[in-house]
C-alpha cells in the first residue's frame, strides 16, 4: 500500500512483545498459554522500530478498513444486504468469536506479517523506539494503538488494555479495564503523542518507512487530534453523566484548527494492487469476485441517493446490469458513467415473470410493504435482506450471475472492482468525518468555535472531493460522462440537505455523515448509529426484519470465558450480568 513490500516486509522479524491475554484455541489451558509466551520470548530477533512501524501501519489500516466488506456491519448500518447468506443481523447474536477480533484478525496475539497481532507489534515499536531514542515512532505507535483499542472497546465494551501485551512482566490473565478507563488512557496517550510530535527535536518517522504520512509530523498531529475529538464525541454524554465535561478539551482542538481539514490530511493507505494481499478489498483480479458481486445496496440507501441526485452514487455504484424491461425484445445498451462503460442487458418482462415483479420490503417506518420492480431500472436497491439473490427473479432469469449476484439490482461500480486507485483506500479516519463531528458538537453546544452550517457543508464538500467529484456546472445527465461534476452550492441548498437552524439539523448532519462514510468507514457508521439513533430510519427498518432488538455489541470471545474467567465475569457484571449483544456498554448508557 505505497510501501516497500519486497524489501521491508522481508526484514520484519518476530519481536519480543507478548500478548498476555489469550491463545487461539478455546480449549487451551493455562500451561499452553504460558508455553506460548515463553516460546515467543525465546525467539531471537534483530530489527529496528522503523520496520515494525511499517508493519503496524499496514496491518492496522488493512484490518480497520476491511469493514467495507463486513456484511453484518453493512446491514446494521443499512448500507448493504448480502446475496449469499441473507439476513445478517442475527449474526451479532448467534456468533461468539474464539478470540479478540479486529476485523477477523486477533489484535492481541498472532504474527504481525499476516495482519494479526497489531497490539503486539505496536508494543514492539514502543520498546524498540524508546531504546533507540526515536520517540516520534513511539507517538505514532500510540496513535495507532488508540485506533485498535477504540475499535475493540466499541465492539465489546470493557477490554484488557492497561495490563495487556506487557511481555514477561505482564499478567497472563489481564484484567478488563472499564470502558471509562480505556477512554481516559487513550486521551492521555493521544495528548502525549501530540506533545512528542510537536517537539522539533523528536526523532523518528523516516519518510521511507512511515507509509501513512511520509514522515510528516504535522499530519500525525492532526490525526491524533481528530481521533481524540472522535472519541470525545463518542463518550461525551457518558463522561458528562459521570461528572466530567469534555467541552474544554473539545473546544481547544476546534479552536486550534490543528485537525484534519483537507483531503490531503486523510489517514488512509492506497493499495499497490500488485498481489491479492496488496489490493483493494472488492477487487476482481483474484479469487471468485464474490466480495464484489454479493453485496447489494439497500433500497433505503439508493432511495436516499436518488432523491438527492447525490453525485457519490454515480461514483460508487453501477446502473442495474440486467433490468427487467418494457421493451418487446432483449436490448443491449452501452452506458458510460464516470469514465467506465457498462453493458446493460434489458430483458423483456413476460407473463412468466409476474410473480417476480414484486418483493416484500419495509417502508421508512418499518412496516411491511410490497415493492414493485421498476422496469428498465437504472438505480434500484434491495428491499429485504432475505433471499436477495432471488428478488425480482434473481438466479431464475436469464442475465443473472448466479447465487452470488442479482443483476436485477444495483451493484458496485467498475471503480470498486479495481485493484488500486487513489480513491480506494484502507481508511482509518478522514477529514469529512472530522467536519461532521465538529458540526454535531457545535449544534449540541459542546463547542463554540465555527458554525454548524460551515462545518456541515465542509463535510459534504470534503466527501465529494475525496471521491474526486468536481465542483462546477452540473450536466443534464451523467450518462456518457468521463467524470462526475456537481454544483456543490446547489447541492447544499436542496430541501433534503439544507439546514434550518433547529434540532432537526442533527438528522441531516447524521444522514450526510452516513452517506459520506459509505464504503470508507462502516465501523464508524455502525458506532454512530448506536450512539445517536440517527439516521432514525435505521432503527425502524433494521430491527423490523427480525425478532431481535438492534445489536449494541459483540459478545466476548470464548477464550476469555474459559481461560480468563474471573476477569471475564467482572466485565460481564459491569454489563448488567449478561454477555449478550443487546447489553449497552458504558458510552451508550446516558
TrEMBL record:
| A Pfam family recorded for this sequence | SusD-like
Query: Which SUPFAM superfamilies does this UniProt record tie to the protein?
Result: TPR-like
User: Which InterPro entries did the record assign?
Assistant: SusD-like, SusD-like_2, TPR-like_helical_dom_sf
**Signal peptide region:** 1-25
Its keywords, alphabetically, are: Signal
Protein's recorded name: SusD/RagB family nutrient-binding outer membrane lipoprotein
Classification from the root reads: Bacteria, Pseudomonadati, Bacteroidota, Cytophagia, Cytophagales
